[in-house]
Amino acid sequence: MSDPTDSAAAPAPPQTGSGFGPDLAEVFGPSQQDGGPELIQLLTPEGERVHHPDFDMEFTPEQLRGFYRDMVMVRRIDTESTALQRHGELGIWAQLLGQEAAQVGAGRALRPQDFVFPTYREHGVAWCRGLDPLKLLGLFRGVDHGDWDPEEYNFGLYTIVIGAQTLHATGYAMGMQRDGAVGTGDPERDAAVIAHFGDGASSQGDVNEAFIFAASYNAPVVFFCQNNQWAISEPIERQTRIPLYQRALGFGFPGVRVDGNDVLATYAVTQAALQRARDGQGPTFVEAYTYRMGAHTTTDDPTRYRLSGDVESWKLKDPISRVEAYLRRNGLADSAFFGEVAGEADDLGARLRDGVKALPDPRPLDIFDAVYDETTDELREQHDEFAAYLDSFEGSHA
After folding, report:
1. Which CATH class is domain 7-358?
2. Which of 90, 140, 326, 398 could form a disulfide with 390 if both were Cys (CB 3.0 to 4.6 A apart)?
3. Active site residue 292
4. What are the backbone dihedrals phi and psi of residue 253, each rounded to the nearest 5 degrees, phi first?
């Protein structure tokens, strides 16, 4: 096994050309370098197609309709889950309203062999990885700790500790590197890791430590930050004096800011960043600039700290509406298609409502089964004491 402290064990970071191409300034341009207002954008809020010199790509009608369907379904998962929490069926729910394009764009840019490290809000990425949303609801209902196999979906368990998943992602990426799954030129083998986090998490020490390790070992990881501009009640301007993507340059790897409400641009930029990682060119920071139109979680009241006018202005940039406008304007989808998607969303909503109520409650003693691989004497003693306590109640179902 390679010594992780041995710098020879990992490819040395490139001395030049650390952007998506041979020259960082050439690729990102002066506005990206100097903190200007440019966002990488391929679809305007009005649904007009625009082109970018470095990240432009063509999309088939099937892809565009697929993006629309994905976002509608993901939004339905969110609205149904919020309603379920309000009715007492979930303990809490982390909303993603307004961030569908950032998640679907990033999720669809993945290859099967890539691995995702999520926070607790990546419901859209989970959808793109084929994860049944009922498995997410089990976690928020409190009947399990995440009822899915990360290896089956290449999608890690939700991380509640803010920012911790970035270190997990970097370590996993370094393991891929040492296993020879990076830079071989084989598209079926070369893999990358993507770590999702929010603007609030960017202030955590774990995230900055992950940046250091990823840069030092040229790890094949994409740091995907959904900057929804609010860390619960803390606005982004209280956390940073420069655009978040510019922080990457201080650690020695490129950063780029993309319109996080534009699913096409998010897909294109994330795909480029992932390919760069798979090719052995190291980490990239992607800042998806978006807005949290809902609450941080269902325990939060955003009306106490932000203006309703801001929310209304961002509704005009709705990620779903702009794709719908483009599809309709260009004759790429008709009323039958939109009706079909709406019906499918209704079916999903009904399945979630019925399914979450049918989730079995865990047995209290099950908590002892997932502590250690081998049960210790102390744990066995605790198990027996708790079992005796439960037996003291009539009708116990330990």
Report:
1. alpha beta
2. 398
3. yes
4. -140, 160
